[in-house]
């Protein structure tokens, strides 16, 4: 009986260890995505002028002004 109980605890520990590693892999991937999104956001911020309006043809004054 004690040997079976120890085996059961070892099996559960192995499953928990595998789950922790899988969760860690997911967290690493998510952090990579967050880092990329932050870099992209910073690029977009640099494309904005002081008024918060992006520059380009859509925001240029028409030629008759």
Brief sketch in words of this structure:
The chain is mainly alpha-helical and 65 residues long.
User: Hey, roughly how much beta strand do the residues contain?
Assistant: under 5%
State the distance separating the first and last CA atoms. Answer: 91 Å
Mean pLDDT: 87
Q: H/E element string?
A: H
Global shape: rod-shaped
Number of helices: 1
What does it look like?
- With 65 residues, the protein is mainly α.
- The protein is 69% helix and 0% strand.
- The chain has one helix and no strands.
List keywords for this structure.
rod-shaped, mainly alpha, 65 residues, single chain
Element layout with pairings:
Elements: H1 2-46
